[in-house]
Specification:
six-stranded parallel β-sheet; about 270 residues; Pantoate--beta-alanine Ligase, Chain: A,domain 2; binds pantoate; 2 domains; alpha/beta; three-stranded antiparallel β-sheet
Amino acid sequence: MIIARSAQELEDALKTRPGSRGFVPTMGALHIGHRTLIDAARRENECVVVSIFVNPTQFLPGEDLSKYPRREEADFKICELSGVDILFYPDVSAMYTADEIRITAPDVRGFILEGASRPGHFDGVLTVVMKLLNLVHPTRAYFGKKDAQQLALITQMVHNFFMDVEIVPMDTVRENDGLALSSRNVYLSSEERQEALKLSAALKHATKMVMQGNVKSFTIQSAMEEILAPLDVEYVAIVNRAFQSLNEVVIGDTIVLVAARVGTTRLIDNVWM
Ligand code: PAF
């Protein structure tokens, strides 16, 4: 595995690996969810590139960037054992200069739900993903459906800017008890981890209601809120794939999303119907 720490080192490394290229952008603290993305990239491409970069521009003032889990040694091992060809591991100065042009998330889709609680977050995500896609030139780039709004906005950016890359959405990976894998799960105490199961339980209940023919968003949301209590719920939302609010679930075009704080840890989860 080649480790590239700058744009130049990455360009040199890419020259040694011709053929189709699968790309998995990450912020490190890799878990089985990332491994699933890397495995898909491995199966579907001749060369696999992973980036590990804790992107400062997607953290808001007050969100503690320095506390984001960093596990360099373990992450390098996971990449090596997963058959990654090139690991891009830049520092901030390799990615940003002062006073740059930024990509801005669209008004509506960028500033509801995750964008409402974290205004400006998606500007940072889109800016860094644009940079990474331009540096790596992948054939396919893999993103998890757990970050559904991020996935929708990246897909839109690629479309709006006529970028030549296929965005591949990948299903959320869960623990046996239903907890969606997230780098933030490490912050949960064992009691909080139990409480966190309320997110997946609420989504499971929503799926059950829809299967029984209860498709009214209001009824589903109320039932989910009962299951989630007494967590500090930020939102329970039922939207279509374009992130427009739905009064009723439309099978094949619905995402049910939840964001809640468990202790001080903010968790998100969703189910695609
Ligand atoms: O989902 C993430 O880990 C990040 O938002 C991403 C896409 C790597 C951009 O920093």
